[in-house]
Design goal:
By secondary structure, this protein is of the alpha+beta class. It folds into four domains: 72 residues; 45 residues; 58 residues, GMP Synthetase, Chain A, domain 3 (2-Layer Sandwich); 238 residues, Beta Barrel (Thrombin, subunit H), CATH 2.40.10.10. Helices cover 29% and strands 30% of the residues. The protein has nine helices and 26 strands. The protein has a seven-stranded antiparallel sheet with strand order 1-25-11-12-15-14-13. It is globular. The two termini are 27 Å apart. It comes from Streptomyces capillispiralis. Belongs to the peptidase S1 family. Pfam families: Pro_Al_protease (PF02983), Trypsin (PF00089). GO terms for molecular function: serine-type endopeptidase activity. This is Trypsin.
């Protein structure tokens, strides 16, 4: 028995010494090494030349001489201009000019007047660059009286405001690529993002308020994380902080169904006329065309502006799901009207704006050969030079679970970013070492008392 206790003490001491060495190594690496940030690309702002086709020309020529840009059926960039000098500049840049009557300033002035009018839930408007008009839509919930009053406002603006009635109702598509659930409802994981310290899910803002706890299963056993910030109404984006701090393997891949995924390699703003793809847990992978930008929707919960308008269908359960094209992240699903049987209009929160406001970066997938993705893919190559009919979602990849793989626990513990685990290992090892020494000392004292008693008793 005494021999067995000695063996246990020696093994414990050896384990404690080993723990001290391991913990010291982890802390040393964490302090000495630069924190390793996941492969990520910064957001592209709408004003940057590469953000979407024609954006650089529009920014350079100004909003008084241009009225937006779009991609035609052959994949060419078309820029709406108000004078011949601007048209010559567009031709010199290799794009196609289109003379129009009204400038972007005129179109934005019209939308400002609409915003100043009494708010009517169930209405939406957007800038139609190709027709050089502002399109106002009203769903089935808008009364004849409200529609008549809004029509009077439009008539006062001028003949370039087009009024259209639409079927269905404009609603947030609460309840995406991978389902996430909370007491606030059911939504979709959009894209994985990082601030360099922690990883997050970027999803729709209307999915749930700050503090909402999200799970990957309906029994509440697989916690994904907690909503830590966002904006709705006004905008429609939010961040869910992963419970474990990391997004896990396959963070740069979005699911498109049947265990398949698409590698996300960059982020940009879309172009009108561009073919895009949307993935959601309710309706799966769907495609369509961007029909307008800078759209405003008056949801029952409030007004959201600066949205991407498209004819891609969506249904309840698709909220927050990703919109992308050629592997480029474009938006997260906000809401719309109709469904995937009858069609409809769907609106998306631009990813670029959300990343800029939240101060995070998109996590991108490694290349097909396993190497890191390009640090900043050129959106003009993937967005403008590809004809809409030839566009694809992006390169394929297998889909991992939304939660980090438990098998990566050991590698995370050894990750040089983790000072905390190293300190915990050191602390535990010190406790074990002190305990073995105390037990040995106590046993020695008892043995001495027994010997003393036997000698002098």
């Amino acid at each position: 028995m005494r021999h067995a206790r000695r063996v246990v003490r020696r093994v414990t001491r050896l384990a404690a010494v080993g723990g001290l060495l391991l913990g010291a190594t982890m802390v040393t690496h964490a302090v000495a090494g630069e924190p390793r940030v996941p492969d990520a690309v910064p957001y592209a702002t709408a004003g940057e030349a590469g953000a979407r086709p024609g954006a650089g020309l529009v920014a350079r020529l100004g909003t008084s001489r241009t009225a937006g840009s779009w991609t035609d059926a052959e994949g060419r960039t078309v820029v709406a201009v108000t004078d011949e000098a601007a048209a010559e500049d567009v031709r010199a840049a290799g794009a196609e000019p289109r003379r129009v009557e009204r400038s972007m300033d005129d179109l934005r002035s019209a939308t400002a007047t609409l915003r100043a009018a009494p708010r009517v839930p169930g209405t939406a408007w957007a800038l139609d660059y190709r027709s050089n008009e502002v399109v106002v839509r009203g769903d089935s919930t808008v009364s004849a009286e409200d529609w008549s009053e809004l029509t009077e406002v439009a008539d006062g603006i001028g003949g370039f405001v087009r009024m259209e009635r639409t079927g269905g109702t404009f609603t947030t598509r609460l309840n995406g690529a991978r389902p996430i659930l909370s007491t606030a409802g059911r939504c979709s994981a959009g894209f994985n993002v990082t601030d360099g310290e922690r990883d997050f899910v970027l999803t729709a803002g209307h999915c749930g308020p700050e503090g909402s706890v999200w799970f990957a299963d309906d029994r509440g056993r697989q916690e994904v994380g907690t909503t830590v910030g966002g904006s709705f109404p006004g905008d429609d984006y939010s961040l869910i902080a992963y419970a474990g701090g990391r997004a896990g393997e396959g963070a740069g891949v979005v699911a498109i169904g049947d265990g398949r995924g698409v590698r996300i390699t960059g982020v940009a703003d879309p172009a009108v006329g561009q073919r895009v793809f949307r993935s959601g847990s309710t309706s799966g992978l769907r495609d369509g065309e961007v029909t307008a930008l800078d759209a405003t929707v008056n949801y029952p919960e409030g007004t959201v502006s600066g949205l991407i308008e498209s004819d891609v269908c969506a249904e309840p359960g698709d909220s927050g799901g990703p919109m992308f094209s050629e592997g480029i992240a474009l938006g997260v699903t906000s809401g719309g009207s109709g469904d995937c049987r009858s069609g409809g209009t769907t609106y998306f929160q631009p990813v670029t704006k959300a990343l800029a406001r939240l101060g995070v970066r998109l996590i991108v997938a490694p290349g097909a050969d396993g190497g890191a993705a390009a640090p900043s893919p050129a959106p003009s190559r993937t967005q403008g030079a590809v004809a809409p009919d030839a566009a694809s979602p992006g390169s394929s990849a297998p889909v991992r679970g939304i939660l980090p793989d438990p098998s990566t626990l050991l590698s995370r513990l050894a990750d040089p970013r983790n000072v905390g685990p190293g300190l915990l290992v050191i602390g535990g090892s010190l406790v074990a070492l002190v305990a073995t020494r105390w037990i040995r000392a106590e046993q020695d004292r008892k043995a001495y008392r027994r010997h003393y008693s036997a000698t002098w008793g």
